[in-house]
């Protein structure tokens, strides 16, 4: 009996986790309002207070040509994967110590997944 309960609870956790990871681009667009005061996305996006984030997934950190990054971001030697972006949205200064983005971070995993879905969806 115990094992049945265990299997059931693992199965439902897995289902919840995958629904979660998918994210909702429409909700993500709304949630991106928190980023949009500093960041643009889309084919004609340009640097503003922060660098543009068009197709940022798979892009090298600190690499857009029209933005003057902090030394920390310019020298951050990695590519923005979804995992990196997820961690950065939670705690920017832990992922790139000394970077200049003044943002407390987002506590809600759902909102983070939604923002990622939105960023993915902007073609
Ligand atoms: C108050 C303005 C501000 C807000 C709000 C903000 N950012 Fe930023 N962001 C910046 C600045 C400034 C930088 C450049 C940091 C540096 O050069 O050290 C940056 C850098 C970034 C980068 C690195 C880009 C690259 O080209 O490597 C990503 C990714 C990013 N922000 C995502 C987000 C997301 C997602 C949100 C919303 C959840 C957000 N930011 C909210 C100002 C902001």
TrEMBL record:
UniProt keyword annotation of Manganese present: no
Coiled coil: none
Pfam families: Cytochrom_C
Cytochrome c domain sequence ranges: 23-123
N-terminal signal peptide: 1-21
InterPro entries the record matches: Cyt_c-like_dom, Cyt_c-like_dom_sf, Cyt_c_1A/1B
Record flagged with keyword Lipoprotein: no
Name this protein carries in UniProt: Cytochrome c family protein
Taxonomy of the source species: Bacteria, Pseudomonadati, Pseudomonadota, Betaproteobacteria, Burkholderiales
């Amino acid at each position: 009996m115990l094992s049945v309960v265990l299997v059931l609870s693992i199965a439902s956790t897995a289902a919840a986790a995958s629904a979660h990871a998918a994210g909702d681009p429409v909700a993500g667009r709304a949630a991106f309002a928190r980023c949009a005061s500093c960041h643009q996305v889309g084919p004609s996006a340009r640097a503003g207070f922060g660098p543009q984030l068009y197709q940022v997934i798979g892009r090298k950190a600190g690499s857009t040509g029209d933005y003057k990054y902090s030394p920390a971001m310019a020298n951050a030697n990695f590519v923005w994967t979804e995992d990196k972006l997820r961690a950065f949205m939670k705690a920017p200064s832990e992922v790139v110590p000394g970077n200049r983005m003044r943002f407390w971070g987002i506590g809600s995993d759902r909102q983070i997944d939604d923002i990622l879905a939105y960023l993915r969806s902007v073609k």
